[in-house]
Amino acid sequence: MRTAFFRNENQENLTSSLPEEHFFDRIEDKYVLNTNLLPQLLERIANIMPPFYNNGSDATYTLIESIYFDSLSLEFYQHHLKELPIRYKMRVRRYAPGGVWDTETLFYEVKKKEMEKSKKIRFVISEHDLAKLKKGFAPTFSKELLMINAKLGEEKLYTRVSKAQKLYEKYSLVPSIKISYLRHAFELNDIRVTIDYNITSNFLLLKSDLKVNKLENSGDSILNNKILSDKISEISNKYCVQNIAVMEIKHKQIGEFPDRIRDLLIQFNLNKVSFSKYVHSVSQVISS
Question: Which of 30-34, 50-54, 184-188 is the least confident region?
Answer without folding.
Answer: 50-54
